[in-house]
Amino acid sequence: MNVAVDHGVPLQLDAAVEVQSTRRTVLSAAPEWRTYGLPRAEAAEVRARWRQEVQRLRAAGELLDTRDAVLAHGVRAELAARGWNREWDEAPEEAWDQGRWPGSRSGGHPDRVSARLDEALVRQVVAACWHTSREAITALRAWRDAHPHIVPPRHRPADGDEPTGPLAEYERLAAQVTTTGTIYRAGLTRGINTAHTLTP
Fold first, then answer.
1. Which of the four pLDDT bands, split at 50, 70 and 90, describes residue 116?
2. What is the C-alpha to C-alpha distance for residues 186 and 5, in angstroms, rounded to an integer?
């Protein structure tokens, strides 16, 4: 997936991953992972155990040495912080439409980060965002039907530049929509911060 992010976030992410990659190398040098002098079968077993240990550390958020690991850890932390780390009903098909959800904004995030997330985590994010935003999305669709000639601004208004009239209602409803991009961006920030706190 590609996540639209603020300028500089890809560099911050790469720096965090580099530090954690060095940490992985240090961890792999521990005596229990050495294969020098071992028969081939035993060496293969040690390497397999090391791969399992790396996966365990990543899943526990104790080793964030890839973009995927940083994003997954951060997204899980963001869902937990919102109280959304639970089972949700499946999101309806319309939640997966390629277009933007009503109330979402365009622009403002000039850079991109590519990463892969487990399908179950992606489904949880989409379901959480959809079900917590559903009422506002329904109201925004009704607002658009009632005001077909008013074009909402593409960006949130600046502080002190609050809209009036029907646009004020639009802004109130739009503020209640949480997009998946919001969760992914917040997750990246949390993941990067965690990566920097782990012992090198």
1. very high
2. 10
Instruction: State how far the Cα of 183 lies from the Cα of 90, in Å rounded to an integer.
Output: 18
Contact 20, 62 (CB under 8 A): no
Residue 2, SS3?
Answer: strand
Residue type, 80: A
What's the CA angle centered on 135, arms 129 and 141, to 5 degrees?
105
Q: Give this prediction's pTM.
A: 0.90
- Rounded CA separation 64/124 (Å): 21
Encoding tokens for residue 140? 């925004």
27 token code pair? 């961890």
Task: Please tell me the distance from the alpha carbon of residue 71 to that of residue 35, in angstroms, as a whole number.
Answer: 32
Token code pair at residue 44:
């293969």
pLDDT (tens digit per residue) in 127-152: 999 999 999 999 999 999 999 999 88
Question: What is the per-residue pLDDT for 160?
Answer: 64
pLDDT at 162 over 70: yes
Phi-psi label, residue 3: left if phi above 0, alpha if psi -120 to 50, beta otherwise = beta
Q: Check: CB of residue 49 under 8 Å from CB of residue 43.
A: no
User: How much of the chain, in percent, has pLDDT values that exceed 70?
Assistant: 96
Q: Name residue, tokens 């669709």.
A: 141
Phi, psi (5° rounding) for residue 107?
70, -175
**Which of the 8 DSSP states describes residue 31?**
G
